[in-house]
Every structure is written in structure tokens, then in C-alpha cells.
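Bumping with the actual sequence this time:
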Amino acid sequence: MTPRSAPGTVLEASMRAGGRVVAGIDEVGKGAWAGPLVVGVAVLPESAYVDGLPDGVADSKTLTERRREASYERLATWCAHWSTGWASAAECDHLGMAAAQRLACRRALDALGVDVDVAIVDGRWDFVSPLVPQVEMMVKADQQVASVAAASILAKVSRDRHMRSLSASFPHWSFETNKGYPCDRHRLGLAAFGPSVEHRTSWAFMDTSVPWPGASRRQRGDAPATLF
């Protein structure tokens, strides 16, 4: 098997002409049954283009939880700017996932502390426009683009820590291990105790994993015409 190459800075470097601010953007929590959707934004420091990258800049999905935590601590002080934006489970229910992603992205950019000229976004779905003048979509950008990899780690660890903190108040759904994602223990908790206030009750799992009469509550409200 060919080893996976580490993310680099070639794409960011090609877009920085004229002092433009280039940021990587990624989201986590889209497929979860419970907890928030989190969008991470990261801007690399000048040293990234001169001295290279610190250890641990990688797609967050390829790292163990221990390595993600260690990478988070390095990146939080190394990045020139970074932030996360959150959409709660209730907002995901009410708005729908597309609008919730846009809302979380707007919150992340508002918290960044610098205006972004170019955003490199993982995937095919553009949830960033029109907040940033230039948006470059790239499938598997978290594996190839350093700023996106950094954003993925910062968002993932931020969300994981939040889900672990919820487990003390919501012990029946094993959030400390599954982080709100589908698994057998999560299904058992739903079957025995139903959903918590942290669950996305408009999601399809309510029909298949909560065997109570009337458990499905698909009454999602209409999303606003615009969130910007």
C-alpha cells in the first residue's frame, strides 16, 4: 500500500499574493445523532511557509484520540488565527443541516479576528459563500492542505471535549466514547431511555432506534430565507 502523503502548503502559498489571508475550513459532527455541528477555521502562520509544519498536522480522522489531543495543543498556539463556530442540536433540527452548517461557519469566521480573502474548504458542498470572497472546494482537502488539516483537528478535538463533558449529565448514551455518533451502546441507550435534549430528534434514527410510539418528532421548522 502506498503511504499517504502529509498535508502541505503549496495551495495556500499559491493564493497568498498581495497579502491575501488564506484559511482552511472543515466541519465535524454532521453525521452525529447528538451534540453540535462544529466548523473549524485555521490560518497558518508565516513560519509555515519558511520553516515547514509542526508534527501532527494531518487529517484528524487518521489520528488516534491521544495524537489529536497532542496536535490540538500544538496547533492552538502555532496557528496565526483559528476559531470554531457551533450550531447546537436544536439548531440542526430547526434549520436543517445545510443552514446549520452556514450558521456555524458564520460564527467561526466572526470569531476568527481577521478577514479571510480565500477559503479552502474540504468536500463539495459550499457552506461558506458568500461570507468569503473566494471559496475553493476540494475533496479530501483535509488530507492534502495543511490549513484544512489544522482546522479539522481543532474542530474535532473541540467537539470531542464538549461531548465528553456532557457525559456526566447524560450518562445513558455513552457520549464519552461515541461522541454522539451511531454505535451499539448509543442505540441501547436510545432504546432504554429515549433521546436527551442533546439529540437531533428530527433525524431518521428516531424512527429506527427509539421504539416508542410517537417517538419520531420530525417537525423541523422552515429555515430562514437567509442567515447572512
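The C-alpha cells above came from a reply further down the thread. Residues 10-166 form a domain with the Nucleotidyltransferase; domain 5 fold (CATH 3.30.420.10).
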